[in-house]
Amino acid sequence: MTLDLAGVGIGPFNLSLAALAEPVAGLDAAFFEREPEFRWHPGLMIEGAALQVPFLADLVSLVEPAHPLSFLSYLRDRGRLFPFYFAERFHIPRAEYEDYCTWAAGRITSARFARDVRSIGWSGGTFELAVEPGGVVRAYHVVLGVGTEPVLPEPLEHLAGERILHSADYLPARDRLLAADDVTIVGSGQSGAEVFLDLLRARPRGGLRWLTRTPAFAPMEYSKLGLEQFTPDYTRFFHGLDEPTRDRLVPSQWQLYKAISADTIGAIHDELYERTVGGGWPDVTLAPGVEVTAAAERAGRVELELRHVQQDRKATVTTDAVVCATGYRERALDELLEPLAGRIERDAAGRIAVDADYRVRLDAGGSLFVQNAERHTHGVGAPDLGLAAWRSARILNVVCGRPVYPLPDRTAFTTFGLEQP
User: Fold this and answer.
1) How many CB atoms lie within 10 A of CB 311?
2) Are strands 126-132 and 164-166 parallel, antiparallel or unpaired?
3) 49/43 Cα distance (integer angstroms)
4) Residue 156: which of 293, 288, 285 has the closest Cα?
5) Over the stretch 116-160, which tens digit does the pLDDT of each residue have?
6) Burial zone of 109 (CB within 10 Å; 0-12 exposed, 13-18 middle, 19+ buried)
7) 3 CB burial (10 A radius; 0-12, 13-18, 19+)
């Protein structure tokens, strides 16, 4: 049998697509994930950490709020609707979001865990997926949702291990970090702030340092009109820009996706303030505008060479461990798509070209879609959970050739760009 739709990877985005595809009559779909079960950033399930988007950014609600796999349906099934109602929480704990996704994954019949897709080719009018175990699976349409991978700064990559780790691996290393005399955190996004706050609260002493290249420990843009840059309207506008303009624009929008929630900043300041009671200052360093230029091991410790970006001054510090909260990059697709290599269109920078409907531009007859691998073409909303259901619905409408899920023509009060009269 040839599938109508095959998904590679079951993270939140392909899980959203699978959920929306579940009730579509006559659609043969299967989603493959190499891990044995759903997991979502397990190394960052810090106690008290909250999702940075409202609970309505679940798998389905912003497209079909009456869907049986909505977050409210999950609460009803768990017998927790009244506690949630009285909690008055628009932003739910991160652990609760993972539990919700795990609950949904267990109810999606098309989900296939412990299935590793090794390669994707094209033959006889269909895609061929090499799946282990399972052999070859054929499909007319394929959606890639293989996620992202942690990135360490280039000066620290060669020392990756027990003393140099990414924030994605924080919780397994937490006890070791609490016991260390001196810990340095690099990176000032939400993950860096959460790691810093957790260590600050739990360590019995100081010896804590927080460095970032950005000019400030800045709050995430969270104004109502500012958030309209995470709407389908803005996504369409961004996709219509030329490649050089898009490449200049994304780094300038760092406060949309690389900054810190105001609540977390407030909690950090409160913790530091309490340590000044009775006089003195906490044994903690917070230094924005500082980059790590080199690193070396010295007598079982790590020596970091630093440069202040604005002052252009250099310094050296020695620390016992470094946690790099330095973000993620889109997972490389070259090996997976090697059989299609000559058929894929790429942009001037060698990146996969993606059309407005999230299809990779290629000369095969079927459609190969991507989820969260298109920031260079669709903007900073690509990894945002708030756009998950909308993007999944748009892909599903293309696959089915009809508006299975009607989508609104307008989603923002802001007008992005100027239309020709």
Assistant:
1) 9
2) unpaired
3) 12
4) 293
5) 999 999 998 999 999 999 899 999 999 999 999 999 999 999 999
6) exposed
7) buried
Q: Among 202, 166, 171, 207, which residue's Cα sits nearest to residue 186?
A: 166
421 — pLDDT class (breaks 50, 70, 90)? low
**What are the distances in angstroms from CA 244 to CA 221, 349, 368, 376?**
24, 10, 25, 10
Pairing relationship of beta strands 148-150 and 328-330 according to DSSP bridges: antiparallel
Q: Where are the alpha helices (DSSP H) in 161-218?
A: 170-179, 190-202
pLDDT of the residue at 149:
94
Which tokens is 198 given?
Answer: 């957790």
64 close to 405: Cβ distance less than 8 angstroms: yes
| Distance in angstroms (rounded) separating the CA atoms of residues 253 and 364 | 35
185 phi, psi to nearest 5 deg:
-110, 135
pLDDT digits (tens, 9 = 90+) for 42-77: 999 999 899 999 999 999 999 999 999 999 999 999
User: CB-based burial of residue 351 (10 Å sphere; 0-12 exposed, 13-18 middle, 19+ buried)?
Assistant: middle
Cross-strand pairs, 360: 354
**420 pLDDT band (50/70/90 cuts)?**
low
Please state whether beta strands 111-113 and 29-33 pair in parallel, antiparallel, or not at all (unpaired).
parallel
Instruction: Measure the CA angle with vertex 409, ends 60 and 4; round to 5°.
Output: 50
How does pLDDT run across 329-349, given as a tens digit for each residue?
999 999 999 999 989 999 999
> Max CA-CA distance within the chain?
77
Beta strand residue intervals within 309-410, DSSP E: 314-319, 321-324, 328-330, 367-370
Rounded to the nearest angstrom, the gap between the alpha carbon of residue 323 and the centroid of all alpha carbons in its chain is 18
C-alpha distance from residue 324 to each of 70, 156, 168, 296, 375 (Å): 34, 9, 9, 15, 22
Beta carbons of 26 and 402 less than 8 angstroms apart: no
Q: Which of 214, 218, 199 is nearest to 321 (CA)?
A: 199
What pLDDT does residue 237 have? 97
Answer whether 55's CB lies under 8 Å from 91's CB.
Answer: yes
Contacts of 224 (CB under 8 A, 6+ apart): none
Kind and range of the H or E run holding 84: helix 81-87
Three-class DSSP category at 11: coil
CB 247 within 8 A of CB 287: no
